[in-house]
């Protein structure tokens, strides 16, 4: 499929089997800039680009604790979960995932039936696989407490992996993460829409770290700001119902609002299964990447 976004960026969408002639459960898209950017804002004056292609690979939930963490420990290799996929992931200009497990730096880590926590060294697997940016806006990023959340932010920063959807304050959590490739600037925004994260107190405030919460006001305001800084706005949302193969009406409403507000792509996660891809106006919605 192919479309032209409001920012005059041409989007071409493939499955990985088309991209690499092999079936893998990730969905990449290519952004080809074929025209000069419009005069939407003075800030875009220095963002004018010529023709260039960028391949972005986006995958769903990545969790490096529990059984996956045990496999890493037994094998003694943080790269173990990505040995069969790294070749494809690292090929992209930008590789994205929802990082479902926070890192801990204190022993013993906080534990529980549905409490996630990844050993610090497991970040080497993310680097090996070529992940450039992760969303932290989910219902497990605070599982290791405030100290664990702060460590996760600093650990990613130290290892030069960008993150969106969480921060040391609400303002920071809602800031777009700008990544430039071949003269094209991408803005990543991330939001949590799961009630469990809210109940557990994982929402960022002016005084404590946490996740960006999905609201109509947050979404429209943040996309508008991001559009002044980037050619392509990509919105990541943790939403929906686990193991349901169809999106809810709430997912559809927020997805359409994001595109109507100026986003080119919406990347969904949390259901743990793949949900449909929708072409909506000038954008695309991946309701769940699995």
UniProtKB/TrEMBL annotation:
Residue span(s) of domain Capsule synthesis protein CapA: 55-290
Family as reported in the entry's similarity comment: Belongs to the CapA family.
Name assigned to this protein: Capsule synthesis protein CapA domain-containing protein
């Amino acid at each position: 499929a192919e479309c032209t976004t409001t920012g005059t960026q041409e989007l071409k969408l493939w499955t990985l089997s088309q991209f690499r002639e092999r079936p893998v459960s990730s969905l990449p898209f290519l952004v080809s800039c074929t025209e000069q950017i419009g005069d939407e804002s003075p800030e875009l004056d220095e963002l004018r680009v010529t023709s260039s292609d960028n391949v972005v690979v986006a995958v769903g939930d990545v969790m490096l604790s529990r059984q996956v963490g045990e496999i890493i420990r037994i094998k003694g290799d943080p790269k173990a979960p990505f040995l069969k996929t790294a070749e494809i992931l690292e090929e992209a200009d930008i590789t994205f995932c929802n990082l479902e497990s926070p890192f801990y730096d204190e022993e013993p880590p906080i534990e529980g039936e549905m409490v996630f926590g990844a050993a610090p060294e497991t970040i080497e697997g993310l680097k090996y696989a070529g992940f450039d940016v992760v969303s932290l806006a989910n219902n497990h990023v605070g599982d290791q407490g405030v100290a664990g959340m702060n460590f996760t932010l600093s650990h990613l920063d130290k290892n030069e992996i960008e993150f969106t959807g969480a921060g040391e304050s609400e303002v920071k959590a809602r800031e777009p993460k700008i990544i430039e490739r071949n003269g094209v600037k991408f803005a990543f925004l991330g939001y949590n829409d799961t009630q469990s994260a809210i109940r557990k107190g994982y929402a960022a405030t002016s005084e404590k770290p946490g996740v960006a919460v999905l609201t109509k006001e947050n979404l429209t305001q943040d996309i508008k700001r991001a559009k002044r800084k980037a050619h392509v706005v990509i919105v990541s949302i943790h939403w929906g119902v686990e193991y349901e193969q169809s999106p809810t009406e709430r997912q559809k409403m927020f997805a359409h609002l994001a595109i109507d507000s100026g986003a080119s792509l919406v990347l969904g996660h949390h259901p743990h299964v793949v949900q449909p891809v929708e072409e909506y106006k000038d954008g695309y919605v991946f309701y769940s990447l699995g």
